[in-house]
């Protein structure tokens, strides 16, 4: 076979390969489209399912399988598919005169919140029926104004990330707090850190009690390993303190 014939044969094979790959990808996308959970993504998902040839009932069933009670109703799926096919690509109403004022919008928010607080298992359709609001407006109020998510068919406030735990060291006597110190994030709690902390305590005591510290002081520590390690114990004695330990009751 000539070089030219070999090239044409390879080109034909590659063309056939990509044809079947593209066809398989399209079929896979049609059968198992991954749906996202924001209003804009819902809009894109419905449009994509319509473009892939899904009927309104199929679109509704697939949205229902992912979003549950928060999914658009069948009638909405029919209307939105029709809108997309006619070139209207938004789930929300077109801008028009007489849009609600801030006062009216806040009233809408309160209505939606009241329905959900009355029954946290309320579906999107029930909230819409009770308030008379559109799906887009209801969705926006729930997620963007009330900051709620549907968890196990119940509306719950979004959980904010914790700032994390912070370790506080506090030293005090019968008259009150002498010294507080926070372990910074990423800093290791070890013998070196605790020895430096004892030095800070010694300076704080000298400022508070002046010459009285030379008469001797007692330091009560728990039995944590870092407190009873060799270096902190040596530092405690060097600074002139008598180290007392907690009694362990059995």
Major sheet: 2 strands, antiparallel
Which of globular, elongated, flat, extended, rod-shaped describes the shape? Answer: elongated
DSSP summary, beta strand count: 6
Radius of gyration: 34 Å
Termini separation (Å)? 93 Å
- Strand order in the largest sheet: 1-2
In total, how many domains does the architecture comprise?
3
The parts where pLDDT drops under 50 for at least 5 residues are: 1-11, 17-37, 93-97
Helix-strand sequence: HHHHHHHEEEEHEHHE
Oligomer: single chain
What is the beta-strand fraction? 5-15%
Q: For the residues shown, what is the average pLDDT?
A: 70
Helix content: 40-55%
Would you tell me the structural class of the helices and strands? alpha+beta
> Treating each run of at least 4 consecutive H or I residues as one helix, how many helices?
10
Keywords: Signal
GO molecular function: nucleic acid binding
Organism: Phrynocephalus forsythii
Protein name: Transposase
Concise summary:
The protein is 54% helix and 13% strand. With 250 residues, it is α+β, with helices and mostly antiparallel strands.
What are the SSEs and their pairings?
Elements: H1 3-31, H2 39-51, H3 56-67, H4 74-85, H5 102-118, H6 124-131, H7 135-145, E1 148-151, E2 154-157, E3 167-173, E4 176-183, H8 191-209, E5 217-221, H9 225-228, H10 230-238, E6 241-245
Parallel strand pairs: 5-6
Antiparallel strand pairs: 1-2, 3-4
Helix pairs in contact: 3-4, 5-6, 5-7, 8-10
Task: Please tag this protein with its features.
10 helices, alpha+beta, 3 domains, 250 residues, disordered N terminus, two-stranded antiparallel ribbon, single chain, Nucleotidyltransferase, domain 5
């Amino acid at each position: 076979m000539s070089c030219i014939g070999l090239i044409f044969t390879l080109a034909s094979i590659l063309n056939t390969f990509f044809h079947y790959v593209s066809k398989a990808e399209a079929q896979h996308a049609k059968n198992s489209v991954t749906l996202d959970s924001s209003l804009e993504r819902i809009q894109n998902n419905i449009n994509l399912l319509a473009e892939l040839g899904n009927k309104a009932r199929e679109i509704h069933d697939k949205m229902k399988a992912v979003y549950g009670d928060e999914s658009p109703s069948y009638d909405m799926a029919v209307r939105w598919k029709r809108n997309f096919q006619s070139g209207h690509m938004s789930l929300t109403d077109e801008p028009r005169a007489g849009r609600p004022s801030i006062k009216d919008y806040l009233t809408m928010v309160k209505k939606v919140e009241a329905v959900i607080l009355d029954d946290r298992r309320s579906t999107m359709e029930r909230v819409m029926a009770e308030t008379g609001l559109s799906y887009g407006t209801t969705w926006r109020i729930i997620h963007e104004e009330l900051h709620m998510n549907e968890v196990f068919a119940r509306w719950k406030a979004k959980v904010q990330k914790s700032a994390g735990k912070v370790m506080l060291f506090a030293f005090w006597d019968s008259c009150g707090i002498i010294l507080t110190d926070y372990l910074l994030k990423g800093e290791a709690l070890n013998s070196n850190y605790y020895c430096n902390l004892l030095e800070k305590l010694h300076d704080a005591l000298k400022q508070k009690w002046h010459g009285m510290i030379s008469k001797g002081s007692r330091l009560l520590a728990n039995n944590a390993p870092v407190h009873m390690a060799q270096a902190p114990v040596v530092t405690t004695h060097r600074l002139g303190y008598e180290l007392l330990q907690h009694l362990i009751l059995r």
